[in-house]
Each structure stands twice: as structure tokens, then as C-alpha cells.
Amino acid sequence: MHFSNVLVAFAFTASSVAGPLPESDGGLWKWDSNVPEWDSSLPVKRGGSSITESGEALLKRWEAMAEDNPAVIRHKRLREMLVDSEKLERQDARFRGNLSDTCAEADVIVQNVRQAEFAKFWREGERFPGQMFALARDQIVRTELWKIVQQMPKGALLHAHLSAMLPYGKLLDIVLNTPGMVFKASQSLNTTASRDAATIEFAYSSEAVAEGVSVYSPDYNGQLTPVSAAADGFPAVAENHSNGTWKTVEGREGFKKFVKSKMVITDEEAIHHELGVDQIWQRFQGLFDPAGGLFTYELVVRQFWRELFGDLAADGISWVEIRAGGSADKMAPAEGSTQDRTDPDFWWTVMWEELNDFKNQTAANTTHPFHGARVIWSDYRGRPKDKILQSMQSALLRKQNPVIGELFSGYDLVGQEDISTLESWVPLLYAFQEEAKNKNVTMPFFFHAGETVGDGNTTDSNLFDAIELGTRRIGHGFSLYKHPKLVREVKEKNILVEVCPISNEVLRLATDILHHPLPAMIAHGVPTAISNDDPAMMGQDTAGLSFDFYQVIQGFDNVGLAGLGALAQNSLRWSNFEDQDDVTWHQDVELGQDGTGIKADRIQQWNEQWEQYCGWVKEKAYKNLSPKTRLGVGVAVLAWGGVGLYFSDQAEEKYKPTAEEKAVVDKYVPKVHVVDKS
């Protein structure tokens, strides 16, 4: 009997039977004439879970009759076939079908860890599985599942915006320790009310700036002041914590919290979905202004890149495609440098140098290799058209640069889609591609589209234009599942959707992870990968992908570790590692790991990391689980073929369960029925 033909069913006792029994068809099923008619005069116990003895007897008779009922047997078999057939349509079906024994067992271990935490950890107090991220974040990092997800090789980060990637706490530390960085506020910051109302700016000044009037003085009137002076002079503020305690913060700690309040969507704002999408977008868009000023000095930017690449690699990310562009070309050179600050290539040259330095430093790291980064040139769709056209020209000129041209991967329009539709840009976007062709460069599209809760509105309709314009990937694609024709189109054209779960929740498209359409996309066979969009602003407060990966595996029963693996592998399969024409791109995507180029090599490297990671889950992660969680996991391993769970002597040998764990298994083994489906 092959394991793929084994179905494990746990014995159960039904609490009720619904619907009439079928009549006899002359086969195995026969009505037992000894079963008495229901006597309504018999006493029935109300208000509890138990029924009278007569009722129990009747239930046993009906269950006995149903056991050999061909209709019931047929229903079970057809249901099984239907479930299995649907699973074959999933986008991750092939990946799951190719799982090694080690990864299949790791998948089951993680399923059980998740279920154990559902039953215990996420039921304590007001916690529950799938809770809003802003409310759950501090609890997530206490779970075993979080520790497992952190270690996972995550492939590529395909959708992230430059100025909102590195946590602002780290970025502010860099700024505070860099001479020449200055600060300015729109008004005095002498009271809580004035601090709430003020706007702030950061910049670099090559000339010494004296402290002068303190930014916290009532007499302050918008003068520049050294950032370090503004931070050191921040007044004491009493904070009320969620546990009811009060804490006083001042100086640099207080200043950093104040600045972050101007650059981050707060937990309070994130949970107020009743205020709508437009309200949160208005707040969100304003966060980029103070953030942009942090990237105006060479020494800060160089340190930013080192920290960012380091954080990504530490989180198991081996490749990143960053959305940046027109505004990221003005930067003051380091003190004493002869660099022309008006050189539009300077900003990107610094990125190129730091990227290559980091790759060289980490080249020997085969556990978490970092292959590099590229830029998707992005223009804010709310800018005047003439400014955007100038930026498009700048993008093509940068692409022609023989030194840094390799950095630039493609083109996108960013910002709230309601501001300006893709349809309104169609003529100019085709002109852009014609200009790229004339300059002999490749700049494919990677459009934001369908980042909306609408159905048939202009933002939703951007999906049609993005697909017709030949986008290679779709950013967000939140409303795609509402369009059966477009779902078929993206599958046929191998277009991947860059899904950003936490961003979609914070920007009020989904109230929580449980309401996200990602499972629908996967089930319908749509290629998808996980990204984090603007993690410094959205509450993740980390550059990596672990929080978004955690939300997905914790939120959806049908994903599991194997599903996360498929999403990670997809991210590399749809990475734009090198310039390719459309035909070569699609061939490479279609072949994936079976190809012969850079993409295939990097997917194969990830496959090796994935196998090692699954071995770690199976051996070390299992042993590191808390006693309670280990009891929940027991010695369950996946039956080959993904049919169900079974207990075996071999499992004992593999996992060497404790006596306590064996007792738990022995308790349930008698209730396991092995059925040969062949």
C-alpha cells in the first residue's frame, strides 16, 4: 500500500444528523425496520449538549446504517477528488508536488506549531488569530512561528520604495552622528500642540550653523539649527503606555519619537478603517516630505545603503528591486570632495559603489547570499506632466550611462492611483518606449495597478491598461480577483502580482490579513510574491520581509510553510536580474529553475537554501520549541503525497519523542483509522 493512497481519518462523534436518509436502491443500503418511529412524547433534555438515552440509541442506529451507505461512501470519495482537483489549480501546486521528504515533514511541523499557537497563545486575553497588525505586532515577535519565519530564505524583495525602507530609528541615528546635518521646523516646538501642528525638514549645510535660538523657544521662527542640538534639547514628555504605566522621555530619545510621529502611520491611525482610504492616503503622502530631506548628503546616503543592504541580507533576502527616481538625484558631496553636486549621475554612482562594496564583502556568504539590487525608476503621478516627461528623459539618460546604466530595471508611476489613471498616460507611455528603443535601451514597465477596494472605478480599471501596456509585474493588484478575464490574462501572460499584505491593511484596503484577496489569487493560479512596500512608514519598523511573511502563513490555512516557499521562489523567478527583450524575459520566466541563465542559477541556489532551511526546521526548530508546543506537534509527519497525517515507528526514530510526548501520541493512536483508497 503506497503512502499516497493512505487517508487518515480521526474518529469522531457527530452531535446531530441533518436531512432525510435515502431510500433503499436494492444494494447494500437497507432500511432497518426495527428502528422505531420518533415518539414526540419521549423526554428530550433541553439547554445542554447531551440528549436522552433514547435519542442516543437512535443516533447510534442511524450512524451504523450510514456506515455502509453507498451514497455516503460515494460522497466522501467525490469530495476528496474535488478537493484534490482544486488544489491542482493553485499557483503553488507544482512547488508542493516537488517537495522533498524533509521539506514535507518541515511543512507539517510548522502547521502544528501554528495550530498550537492558535489554540493557546492567540486565545489569551483579547488576542485572536488574524488580529490587525498594529495590534498584534508586539505579540507576533513572542511566537515560535515568528522565529521560524525569520530564518527562512525569502528570495527577492520586488516592491519597496526607497525613502521608506530602512527603519527611521536607524536612519536618524546616522543623521544625528553626521556633522553638517541641520533641522528646521515651521514653528516653535515649545508645546505639545505646536509640535503636533508643525512641519519639519532635514537638510545638509556645508557652512557651519550655530545653534542660535532654540527650536523649543517661543521666539523660534524657522531658523536652521544643527540636528544634534535639536535632538539634545528636546523637552521632557510624559508618555502613557498601553500597560497603564507612565514614562518620561527627553533628549535624543524623545526627539526621535517626535520625528517618527511625522514620518510613520501610527498604530492609532492604522486601525481606524472607518475614516476611509482617501483620509489615510492624505496622511501617508505627507510623510515622504520630511523623509526625503534625510537623503541629501553623501555620507548619510552611503551609510544608509550599507545598513539597508545588511538588513535585507540578514532577513534572508538575496535580491531587491527598489522604486526610486526623479527626486533622488540631488545630494551634497562629502566635505572636501571635488564632486559636482549638480551631476545627475552622482546619487546613483554612490548607490552603485556601495552596492558593489557590499556584494564583495558578502560574496563568501553562501548561507544567505546577496546577489544585488536594481532600481525601477518611478515618478509620482501627481506631478505636472511636463515634470514627469523630463524625469522620463532623465531615466533614459541614466540608463545609457555605461557605468551605472545596469542599475535601472524599468519604469513605474507611483502614488495614489486615483490621482492620475494609466489610461490618461497611454500615449506618452508608448512614446517613452519608442524613445527607449531609439536609444537602444530596455526599460520595461512594472506598474502599480488595482490598489483599490473599488469595482469598476478608474483605479480598478488601471489593471486593464497595465496589462495592455505589457507590464511584467503588477504592484498590489488588490482588485484583480474581481476580474475573471484579467485573471486569465495574467496567467497566460505570466504576469506576477507583487502583494503587500501589511501595506494593504494599513492603507485600509483590507481590515486585517484575513480579508486580503491573496488566497483567492493563489487558488486561481495567479503568480504572486510577497513584498513590504513602505515598511519604515507602515509599522513593520524593519527593512526585511519577515512580518509580511508571518502575516501570510498565520492568516491562511492553505498556505503553510510550503506555500511560503512557493511565494519566495516566485519572487526570484520574476526578478529582473538583467536587461532582456520581452521574448527572452517570458522564456526565462517559463523555464524558471530549468533555464540556463542567471535566473535559473539563482533559483537553483535558493532551492539549496530552502532544503537546508527545511532541515533546520525539522531538526533544530523542533527541538527548540517550548514543551507545550512540542506536545502539540507530537511526532506527526506528512504522509507522502500530501494526503494527511500519520503516526509511525519511523517517526519515533526520527524525532526521538520524550516519554510525555509518546503518552500523548499513544492516547490518540487508537482513534486513527488507515484506509486504503486503492
TrEMBL record:
Gene Ontology terms, MF aspect: adenosine deaminase activity; metal ion binding
Swiss-Prot/TrEMBL keywords: Hydrolase, Metal-binding, Secreted, Signal
GO cellular component, one term: extracellular region
Top-level lineage group: Eukaryota
Cofactor(s), names only, from the UniProt record: Zn(2+)
GO biological process: adenosine catabolic process; inosine biosynthetic process
Top EC class for this record: hydrolase
EC number, as in UniProt: 3.5.4.4
Domain (Adenosine deaminase): residue spans on this chain: 279-579
Protein known as: adenosine deaminase
Lineage of the species this protein comes from: Eukaryota, Fungi, Dikarya, Ascomycota, Pezizomycotina
